[in-house]
Design goal:
- The protein has three domains: 8-208, Spore Coat Polysaccharide Biosynthesis Protein SpsA, Chain A (Alpha-Beta Complex), CATH 3.90.550.10; 214-259; 267-314, no CATH class.
- The chain is built from 13 helices and nine strands.
- With 319 residues, the chain is α/β, with parallel strands linked by helices.
Length: 319
C-alpha cells in the first residue's frame, strides 16, 4: 500500500525553549481539517527541550524529531525543510502559538484557482507572559501583499506564520545560510518574485516578543541584513547575480558568531513591551518598564513611561 504524503509539512527549530515548547507543539498537533507531518529540529538544546520532544514523539507519530549540535536557526531550517515531504511547508516557532484553524485556512486559500505559492495571515503580538500587545494584519489588495514584500522590502507578519509551496521553496533556493538574521525576508522576497503571494485577513498566529528578541537587541544587525537582502533583490530584478551581497551577508554572519556571547542588557525590548502594554493595561506594563530602567537608570523616557504606568495603574483610564 502506497502511503500518501500529508497535506502540510510543519517545520520548527528549537533551541532551549523548554518553557514554551509544550504549548507550541500542542498548537500544531491540535490543528483540524488537514493532514500533517511535524518536523522539529532540536538545535543543540541544553535545557530539557530534547526530553520534551522525545516524549511528545512517543505520543504522536506525526512528529519527526532531529537532534543535532547547534547550528543556528537558518541552518536548522534548511535541514528541516529538506526533510519535508508534503506539497506545502508551514513554519512554526517554538515560543509561538498557531491559533485554531490556521493551517486549514492557509491550505484552503492556497488551493484556490489563482494558485498562490505563498499565503500570509494576520498575527497578534504577545509579551512573554502572554499579555496582548498589538495585532498585525497583512494587506488584502490583489497585489498589495506582493508589493509590500518585493518593492518595499517589508516582512509582513512573523516568521512562524510562513506558509508556502514546497515546489516554489525549492525552486527559489530555500533559506540561504548566509543570512543569520532576516532569513525569512530573503526567502519571502524571492518567493514574491517567483509567483503569486496572497494573505488572509484573519489573525491566525500569536507570536511572542521577548526582551531578548532579535528585533529588540539586534536591530542594527537586522537592518544591515535587510539592506543586503533588498540590494540582492534589486540586482536579480535587473538580471544580475547577487553573489556580492551574499558574500557580504556571510561576513556579517561571521561577525555575529564572534559577538553572540557578549552580555546583553535588553533595555530596548523591555521598554518596547512596557510602552505597548501601557495603553491597555498599565499594571502589566510596570515590571517591563522597571526592567528597562534597571538596564539604563539614566533613561528619562523609561522613567516617564514608568511614572505614567504607576499612576494609571492606580487610576486606570484607557488612553
Amino acid at each position: 500500500m502506497i502511503r500518501q504524503p500529508p497535506d502540510i509539512s510543519v517545520v520548527m527549530s528549537v533551541y532551549n525553549n523548554a518553557e514554551t515548547l509544550p504549548a507550541a507543539l500542542n498548537s500544531i498537533l491540535t490543528q483540524e481539517g488537514v493532514t500533517l507531518e511535524f518536523i522539529v529540529m532540536n538545535d543543540g538544546s541544553t535545557d530539557g527541550s530534547a526530553a520534551i520532544l522525545d516524549e511528545a514523539a512517543r505520543q504522536d507519530s506525526r512528529l519527526r524529531i532531529v537532534h543535532q549540535e547547534n547550528t543556528g536557526l537558518t541552518r536548522a531550517l534548511i535541514t528541516g525543510c529538506a526533510l519535508a515531504t508534503a506539497p506545502w511547508i508551514a513554519r512554526q516557532d517554538a515560543d509561538d502559538i498557531s491559533l485554531l484553524g490556521r493551517l486549514k485556512a492557509q491550505l484552503n486559500r492556497a488551493l484556490q484557482a489563482d494558485k498562490p505559492i505563498m499565503v500570509g495571515c494576520g498575527a497578534e503580538c504577545r509579551a512573554p507572559g502572554q499579555e496582548f500587545m498589538f495585532s498585525v494584519l497583512p494587506p488584502t489588495g490583489p497585489d498589495e501583499f506582493r508589493k509590500r514584500i518585493l518593492c518595499d522590502g517589508q516582512n509582513i507578519g512573523p516568521h512562524g506564520s510562513l506558509f508556502c509551496s514546497r515546489h516554489a521553496y525549492e525552486a527559489v533556493g530555500g533559506y540561504r545560510p548566509q543570512f543569520y538574521y532576516a532569513q525569512d525576508l530573503d526567502l519571502r522576497m524571492r518567493l514574491a518574485a517567483h509567483g503569486r503571494v496572497v494573505s488572509i485577513p484573519e489573525v491566525l498566529y500569536a507570536y511572542t516578543f521577548s526582551p531578548d528578541s532579535i528585533s529588540a537587541h539586534a536591530i542594527k544587525r537586522q537592518v544591515e541584513f535587510r539592506r543586503l537582502i533588498q540590494a540582492a533583490s534589486a540586482a536579480r530584478s535587473r538580471g544580475k547575480a547577487d553573489e556580492t551581497y551574499l558574500a557580504q551577508a556571510e561576513q556579517l554572519s561571521q561577525a555575529i558568531h564572534a559577538d553572540k556571547d557578549l552580555p546583553q542588557q535588553y533595555f530596548a525590548g523591555n521598554y518596547f513591551i512596557g510602552a505597548c502594554l501601557l495603553r491597555n493595561n498599565p499594571r502589566q506594563a510596570v515590571p517591563y518598564l522597571r526592567q528597562a530602567l534597571a538596564c539604563r537608570p539614566w533613561s528619562l523616557r523609561a522613567l516617564l513611561r514608568l511614572s505614567q504606568a504607576v499612576w494609571r495603574r492606580r487610576h486606570f483610564m484607557p488612553i
